[in-house]
Write a structure and sequence with these properties.
CATH class: Alpha Beta
Protein name: MmcQ/YjbR family DNA-binding protein
Largest sheet: 6 strands, antiparallel
GO molecular function: DNA binding
Organism: Autumnicola tepida
Order of helices and strands: HEEEEHEEHH
Shape: globular
Keywords: DNA-binding
CATH topology: Aspartate Aminotransferase, domain 1
Distance between the termini: 28 Å
Number of domains: 1
Number of strands: 6
Radius of gyration: 14 Å
Strand content: 25-35%
Helix content: 25-40%
CATH architecture: Alpha-Beta Complex
Mean pLDDT: 95
């Protein structure tokens, strides 16, 4: 998967913004100001850090050890690095991204969730 496909998927989600807070080589996607994905723009193939339920993170790493690693420069309990070299189906990668987004949304405050619901 290329960065444009991944970016387009992320920014279509409700309440998502994109930023470059760590320099021009790391594109960060946030929902209501909280990060759910970080894409490394200077690596080939594309590598993306995604938030993940800790138990599921371990399972995914065991099942896809070539493509899903502990989160690079992240809390390895809660983040995975997904290497998008074409060995995993695009829909599976989107499902992992959706899982990350949903985890972050679940952790928003009630006020933030109400604000998110109002966004069209």
């Amino acid at each position: 998967m290329d960065i444009e496909t991944f970016r387009n998927y992320c920014i279509r989600k409700k309440g998502v913004t994109e930023e470059l807070p760590f320099g021009s080589d790391n594109l960060v996607f946030k929902v209501m100001g909280r990060m759910f994905a970080l894409a490394s723009l200077d690596t080939v193939p594309l590598q993306v850090n995604l938030k993940c339920d800790p138990e599921r993170a371990i399972e995914l790493r065991e099942q896809h050890e070539e493509n899903i690693l502990p989160g690079y420069h992240m809390n390895k309990k809660h983040w995975n690095t997904v290497i998008m070299d074409g060995r995993m189906a695009k829909e599976f990668t989107f499902e992992l991204t959706r899982h990350s987004y949903n985890l972050v949304v679940a952790g928003l405050t009630r006020k933030q969730k109400r604000e998110l619901e109002k966004i069209e």
